[in-house]
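Lab notes, practical 5.
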Amino acid sequence: MRQEDIPEKRLIALAKEGDMEAFESLVRRYQKSIYYLCHRMTGAHQSADDLSQEAFIKAYLSLSSFRDGMNFFTWLRKIAVNNNLNYIKANKREELLGEKEDTIPGSASSTNQELPPDRLQRNRLELKFKEALKALPVKQRLIFILRFYENQSYEGISQLLGLPKGTVMSRLNRARKKLKALLADYI
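Output from the prediction step:
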């Protein structure tokens, strides 16, 4: 039987016993999701890559504390979220060198190729949205990302972050209002 065909519970049990192939299979199952979460939080490829790897290392080192019956991805996502929050707090005022996102495709600085005007406009709007999202306070950005990119319910976010549901809802509402204000000229 291939590692990919083994049920998650069995892979976890094998990984707890020290089977690296089983853990690698778990990593392969969730690496894209964890990477994208980290990328949305940091806005930078290199940081997201490092943070997602660090989340998997922490998960491996903490496997013995994983309780059977828990959802592995939820547990892993919580590790990644905490890891990202710690990283963002540590680098709060520091401008990360060499971590700017790529320029807008079709702009003079990125390529000489011409893009259709609607595609160029959409790319600009996407870039402005990413900038606006990154400008949100960390607590609001995290809740926005979990709700709209990770498709989490208010209850799920509340449990993941250890916050009352009302706090999650109010932070999400403030995030929406700030995004709307930041993007007013583009929408």
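Observations recorded by the TA: The CA atoms of residues 9 and 70 lie 10 Å apart. The helical segments are 8-16, 20-42, 45-61, 72-90, 117-135, 138-149, 154-161, 165-182.
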